[in-house]
Amino acid sequence: MAWRRAVFALFAVAAGTNVPTPLLLVYQDRLDLSPEVLTALFGSYAAGLVPALFLAGPLSDRFGRRRVALPGILLSAAVSLAFAAAGDALALLFVARFVQGVVSGAVFGVVSAWVGELSHASGEGAGGRRAAFAMTAGFSLGPLTSGLLGQYAPAPTVLPYLVHVVLALAGLAAAAGLPETVAVASRGGGDHGGPEFPPAPLVRPGDGWLAATVLAPVAVCVYAFPSTMISAVPLLVELPAAGVAVTGVLAGGTLGAGTLVAGLQRRLGPWTAVVAAASGAVGFTAAATYALTTALPWLFLAAVALGSGGGLALAAGLTLTARLSAPTRRGELTSLFLACAYLGFAAPFLAAVTARASAPAVPLVAGAVLTGLLAVRLLPVARTGRA
């Protein structure tokens, strides 16, 4: 089936985005970097991704998914080569991480929309679940692999990136033969001598408030949950021995939990977003408890809960995005949703700054309170069955 190849391509690009995450501890040791610099390096990815999302979605709606997605997948491999060549040059690492965000922005929204369009025969919600599975699986297996290679294999800042280059090229080969799902020739009637029609609204009339108060905050949770767990927590609290490997396992476990729970969206239905926010509250509470007690069960509970919350938020958000968008602007709204999601990458930096001014547990407790309030806010929406 064509959607399977699109899912694999999405997975291949997603796998590269978190390859640098466990290696932050290697860079910290080699370059003597502070937690603020490390979280800024991690978050510079979002600075490149968000504007790229705003550009790539509308471009793919106008010119087709293939013309945007295929170059982006190829550039994903090129960015991993740049990371491998950067070595200990901090400026080059920032540039590579920023460009990695640009490349991901050119791929995620577009290929997620492509997966959805190739999944129409499977019913509503199938495309969102499949795209969420592809991204969260890539996000989890990428850092798990790089963490183990970074801890135990030679050339820890080179080999993990080369492994991803091979995977990205395989993803490109899988996507190269996919059918175009956008009727490019019908776009821009005025360019072909026909009448020009006003563009369809970005969301259905009357659903703007739902998009702003439900879709947007749920989107932020998608990456605020796991990025805090895999980027901020290892830098704020003391981990057991073999910290690079432990960080890789935590990242893989956190994002792997998001992969495993994505299928629950079919059963949870309109309650998916509520369960996502509640899982985040549990995860932040467990992480704060670990910071105070250093008891490992709390650390693993935090990883599972925050990862599950992020995965459910992604599945719920992509499904709602497909429901709210006009068909001719699906790529644009999907990209806008993911842009809001990547605002969550600011969470580790905010946590590091807050922790330095207070204590490691303080930003984690604040996260628990905020996400608990969001779960309460989503309850009436879930009862009406509109999200």
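the 2nd protein, sequnce then structure:
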Amino acid sequence: MREQLEALRDEALQLVNQASTQKELNDVRIKYLGKKGPITEVLRGMGKLSAEERPVVGEIANAVRGVIQTELEQRLVDVKQQEMDAKLALEAIDVTLPGRPKQVGQAHLLQQVTDEIEDIFMGLGYTIAEGPEVEQDLFNFEMLNLPKDHPARDMQDSFYITDEILMRTHTSPVQARTMLASKGEPIRILCPGKVYRRDEDDATHSHQFMQVEGLVVGEDISMADLKGTLEAFVKQMFGEAREIRLRPSFFPFTEPSVEVDVSCFKCGGKGCNICKQTGWIEILGAGMVHPHVLEMAEYDSTKMSGFAFGMGIERIAMLKYGVDDIRHFYTNDVRFSEQF
């Protein structure tokens, strides 16, 4: 029995030393130390031995098992290290090779212009306010002095979802919501975002476009404050040489209302094809907040006043960067975007 166990030990140790993978070592362990292995069979058959042979054979069998187990564990450590070394060699990174350049993108032109407008007005003390694009008729029209039967609604032919829910036609609902939430306190906000109108899609119109509106409400706010604010914006946006002029107009939510023109960037006011020989380019609408709008938002119109203005971001971008077709902004043509 001693010779048989020692032969099994030598055979197992030889296979352990020859093993080069963890799988091969596991196979040796199962073959010699598993439940059906020869050493286990020897231990199970000890009942057939005499009382004198039993402790001797048991001691030898356990010693052989211990030697094989120890060698397996030591060899496993070596094999794992060899496998790791081989893997590292295979996956080694040559730090002397040039790196793979990443393609760096940039903000869309409309986002660039929006950010620039926001920076200018935040520098003037404004905060950014946002609201839902799916809006209630109450905030989109009624609280802006546009009741359901008002003819001025025809100028903003709308996408209605229900009789009372629509895609907002301007960002003015954000102004109404902010005034209500302000509980009669002064505010100075800028409201950028997407708006929607059932319009013809051509070189200068789109059914969905970007708009930014501003609103200031406080004591002793005047038309002079409005003009000074817009002059500061125009000079920062288009250059110090630019001038503005105000022309009377009509908006239901402001009184008085004005259209704002900027002196032509190309001809400097002399007249050209860009300004249609007038020397001026219309860029936005503005006016003093209508007292009725203030009162609906729970402001005391005898003490508080304000001004509002609104402009299309696409129009500002087209004028500043010479874009001749509004549809370029939405075709996702990388060749167009890369120019800016």
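Residues 2-90 form one domain. The beta strands are 127-128, 134-136, 165-167, 187-196, 208-219, 244-251, 254-263, 280-289, 304-312.
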